[in-house]
Amino acid sequence: MEVKFRKAEPADIPAIWEVLKGAIARRKADGSKQWQDGYPNPEVVKKDIDNGYGYVLTDDNDIAGYCAVMINDEPAYKDIIGKWITDGDFVVYHRVAISENHLGKGLAKKMMTSIEDFARGNNIKSLKVDTNFDNPAMLSILKKAGYVYCGEVVFRGSPRKAFEKVLD
């Protein structure tokens, strides 16, 4: 198994959308309200890619995961109800999803490590992320990856749990 993390390309959109549709269905099956309102969608993915934010995780060249990764670009994080650990530059990521066909292979952990490597490569020590209160899979991943709960942010009209990890 050769796993790579790379920038997404417009030709990847159909495969990315399949990954996200599976994740949307899993959130629904979990009873989560996250991603049950038409977001994310192919237009969001296209915008991510056009802006250079879209990244895929490939497993032997098969698109196994997707996320959007940005630097200092989440206005909602300025209004946290709580307190971030750091106030400087940060990497933020959204729309984390692993393909139905690649679950159970440790690829979510690999994606998180790749995002940390992205941050280090940009000399940034802070990773910030948010998720729904009712997304047990992501909450578990964040806990295992060493993220610290910092408070709540409002994202797209809904309160979300906000987390930060400071890299060594």
From TrEMBL:
Keywords, ordered alphabetically: Acyltransferase, Transferase
PROSITE patterns with a match to the protein in the record: GNAT
Keyword Cell membrane: no
Domain N-acetyltransferase: 3-168
UniProt name for this protein: GNAT family N-acetyltransferase
Organism (species): Polluticaenibacter yanchengensis
Biological classification of the source: Bacteria, Pseudomonadati, Bacteroidota, Chitinophagia, Chitinophagales
